[in-house]
Amino acid sequence: MGWVNDARAGLSEGRTVQVRPTGGSMRGRIESGQLVTIAPADSATVSAGDVVLVAWRGGFLLHLVKEVNGDQLLIGNNVGKINGWAPRSAVVGRVTAVTD
Hints:
By secondary structure, this protein is mostly beta strands.
């Protein structure tokens, strides 16, 4: 995915990035093609309700943190699917704004 690679490149340099992700898994919170601002995140400060870019099973997801249990984050989409638990260290960035 082009937008994921663009986001990862900027975030790895410590920059805030803007991308236009596509897909429907976050509809209601992020619509396909909306402009999303993602900032580098201190994973220790990520909490339930945050939307994060997270490394997941060989890829990356822009998903919602549903629950936090110590060093583990329960990741899911905004339409009811739960993906599973990911370590805080898998967080690449946090969504700070969504605009048209």
